[in-house]
Amino acid sequence: MSRFKNEVTHLQAHVRTLRLGGLALLGLTALLAVGWWNAPRDLTIHIPPDLRSGSVRKWWEVPPGTVYSFAFYIFQQLNRWPTDGEDDYPRNIRALSSYLTPACRAFLLDEAGRRRDSGELRQRVRGVYEIPGRGYGDNPMTRVKALSDDDWIVTLDLSADEYYGAEQVKRALVRYSLKVVRLDIDPERNPFGLALDCYSQAPQRIGRSPDDNGEEPAP
């Protein structure tokens, strides 16, 4: 009789163990489901532009080349006034506001207002482009300075051309020192996860072309 009683006790203990194991698996599955649900659906990974050789890097690191290309692209778009700077410049600032820090956006809007009031934007057509031989690929070590993992100083050597109607009124060679910060808060509006924080120092003239009228370099 005791033999059967021991067997029943053993089976009851085994069933109890299986139940506890099932509850543990259920809890683990619930934790995995919560982790899967909270995992990011999109992940921005910065790939170096030159893929001729392999690259191993942490996914959150931003390569200097990406920082430079971002700064140049946003700055060039800000300074592209195809018809009339009085309308184009404020419109560019508003259109690119997702790529600007709040402080930089306020600074640029204030600067646009001052230049508009002084007549510097009216009917002005403007564009900037890299000076040949002074781009990132020519000397990358001097173009991007990392202050930390989240902010950088980018040096752009650009030619700034301005026209009033059909007449060219400016062609200046200018060095712009721009600050770029990590701002990965709205991937829908800003997939770069970076933002322009305006100037780290005032623009500097680095040369003058024969048709420059001597005006100071404009931001």
UniProtKB/TrEMBL annotation:
Superkingdom of source: Bacteria
Transmembrane segments: 20-39
Keywords assigned: Membrane, Transmembrane, Transmembrane helix
InterPro entries: DUF2895
Identification of the protein by name: Putative exported protein
Source organism of this protein record: Pseudomonas synxantha
